[in-house]
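Hey Z.,

So I finally got round to the pyridoxal-5'-phosphate thing we talked about over coffee. Here's the setup:
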Amino acid sequence: MWESVGYYNGVMGPLEEMQVPMGDRALYFGDGIYEATCVANRIPFALEEHLDRMYNSLRLLEIPFRMERERVRAELQRVIDAAADSPIHFLYWQITRGNSPRNHVFPQGVEPSLMIFVKPHAMKPMDIPYKLISLEDNRFNLCNIKTLNLIPSVLANQRAAERGCDEAVLHRGSRVTECAHSNISILKDGVLRTAPTDELILPGITRKHLLALAKEHGIPVLEEPFSMVELMNADEVIVTSSSALCMKVESIDGIPVGGKDPQRLKLLQDAYLAKFQRETAK
Ligand code: PLP
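And the result:
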């Protein structure tokens, strides 16, 4: 057992000692896709939905990954089971187009590579609100694919960190898309509103769960774009991701936001946490 475990194409070891070959196309082109979720009691949360999105991203990038779903599940579990105990683990995996001398064109006859890591994770308490900055969304138009090309997100999160903030909310002109590594939704007049799943946002699994939970609790849902002005005037602002679940937002660019519908917000957060705990119970 290791505190953090790494895996590359079947080889497993302590994460800090693992190495990848220089030909892996992730290194030159970010030519691959990834998934991540939290694990409790050695049970990965919402794994089937992550596997569905994984196969969809692979299809959209035309990566011929042949490993059966059952085998992927087994390899992920093998890495989870090799990690020392922790209340929560973070499970990350990526599939790249494989190892081959650098060439923009797809290599022929090359098997895709599977890389996995598991490490201890501390989830942020949902009652400590996020602070955001806003930035123009300068990413490409393939945001629906969970690719490894994350430079604009890295830069956006760095700008946020430099200003003591937790995330960056991105907008194309006035239209809010999502955050650098999360989706964003608002509550306004009792309605939960979030951008539709087009090529401008990642179809977040936490976002999907939040919408389903809202419906279950009688909160109407609207999947329509909203503007920066609507965001700033929302009753509540909610940021969702697999690593932090369902976070309330208290300010954007230093200006206070939300705080006007705390009961509905808490209801959604509690429902989310209950779902996570139920589905990862021993
Ligand atoms: N949007 C982007 C750009 C992301 O990178 C992520 C997560 O990594 C999300 C949204 C949230 O997706 P999920 O809820 O599936 O973690």
